[in-house]
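Exercise: predict the fold of this chain.
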Amino acid sequence: MRDLSRSALAAYAVAALAVALIGARYLRATGAEPGGGGGTPVPSVQVQGGAGGGGGANGDGGSLAVVQVAGAVARPGVYRLRTTLRVDDAVRMAGGPTARADLTGVNLAAKVEDGRQVIVPERPAVGAAGAAGAGAGSAGTPGIPLNLNTATVAQLDELDGIGPATAQSIVAYRQEHGGFRSVAELDGVAGIGPKRLQALKDLVRV
């Protein structure tokens, strides 16, 4: 019986060794496949990350500003522009000025600001221009008041008590505040006090 037990033990040992060798080969073979397959998704993840980085780079061009372009432009409306752009870009986005547009009093070089209104005035008709010029020269002609939101620097300069510097201040105030809502707002313009406002109230309108 001892001889038989030793033989059996030897057989078991050989069988176990064979199983171990087969198992080792199997593990090496299957271990190589996940390694190769596991590396495949990595480049795609990196590519997606690069696309996200590109999206972030768009923010470097400045934040967005919502600007209303009104008056003598081809397509008046509300537009979204980068804050690094200028009023000239806003006017171009609105289709550009019309043939009757008067850009004299529009600061095209100013940067766009969120919530601002850009007003491009129209040149008056030839007949109306002469009448307006005559009325603007005298506070005693109340029938033809000058529109504060469309008047040019030259037209404002013709008003009694308004010089070139004050006329430019009126236009600058108009651009900064998106136009005048009432004649009384002239009191906020540098160089115009209560007395001058009283003299102008019949010569201008909004």
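Check your answer against the key: The first helix runs from residue 2 to 38.
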